[in-house]
Amino acid sequence: MERNSQRIAASGISRRTLLLGGAGALAGAALAEPSLPARAAVRVADLRGTIDAAEFGIRPGAADDQSSLMQQAIDAAAQRGRALFLPGGRYTVANLRLPSGTKLVGLPGQTRFDYQGGGHLIYCEKVKSVGIEGIHFDGGNRFIGEYAPALLHFADAQDVAIEGCTVTGSTKTGLALDRCSGRVTNSTISGARLAGLRSVEASGLAITGNHVHDCANGGILVHRWREGDDGTIVSDNRVERIFAREGGTGQNGNGINIFRAHNVIVRGNRVADCAFSAIRSNGGSGIIIEGNSCLRSGETAIYSEFAFQGAVIADNLVDGGAIGISIANFLDGGRLATCSGNVVRNLVDTGPYPAEVQGFGIGIAVEADTALTGNVVENAARIGLHMGWGPYLRDVAATSNVLRDCPIGVAVTVVEGAGPALIASNMITGARQGAVVGHRWKEATTGDLTRDDAASRFPHLSVSGNVVR
Fold it and tell me: How many CB atoms lie within 10 A of CB 427?
């Protein structure tokens, strides 16, 4: 027996491959040398073996509706505690419900569920331990029932695992998760008429390594009906070409959108070509936005806004947009942040709607209780750093930043009632209209405050040690 085990190990065949080898036509190929899709399927397969969908009369490529047979197979596999293996091919189905313990395993790029319309494709509610791997779900742009928010909808589901799947052609959202925990990994979602992936009221969710692209109104949404702890981790995703077909001034068109969800981590994502923001957090306290690449945003690339308390925005790259980073809305309770180590460049003075408040063409804008340090801003059309708006400024320190080729290096409010601000030890190059300039709302009302003792007129300001050239 030991010699046989050694021979098996030497051949590169795993015990899981042998167990999966009994699944229909895959057997011969698996025993010879498992292909990449086969090995991917094995990862989810239960060690006790899988159930082949063919046992239930399900035939890949059949033109007729196989929903009833598929539901029987799903229920039987879950009851037996086994994974249901679906060989490569097309399965025409609709209105499937997944019970607790469901595990569906397909061959990536080969196994596909084609939605035939009439309600939804996948739905499950109040379940535990549901997994799907390696299946392509095609909505075919067919009607989805009013009751269903997405082509695939999970509600009150614990320990959901969606890995290596593709979701495309949804007339609503691609994948919706309501009050769920678990993970969505290494999957592709595209062509949704609303958002690609939407989570509401999560309780320990990881959204990692996915590709979300070409969706009409949003990429990855992490929302809550009521603000509260969420803890979702959104990491290492690629989000591209997100539009705002339903319009608005920021409700739609965002690559990654956090709303009322606290203690969310957005890390290591590449987000490009979004109609509004690459990353937008509205009312998200305790947010960490770190190490993301944000390219060619239509409005503000990274936004922490409205009633948040506590934001860490660090080590991000922003290239292209109307505003690079905005930490705003002190009037509504938005406060307490660090903004450090970011590279922000190429900001234009036009946006997706007529400019409001401070306008566009700004590198980084902050208002209250914020440390702004070690950032590099280059080629902002109007202003490198924008500090405060009217009286809404309090305890902001801008130190050790490098500002290059911005007409105004730092714009700081000098309106009555504005709170303390420190502007020190910054390198400011090529600020043709002034290195540090006082503003009353949108209007520049002082000369360069780095010259002589010009800043002494404003007791709330401390301006010192800046290098201007």
Answer: 16
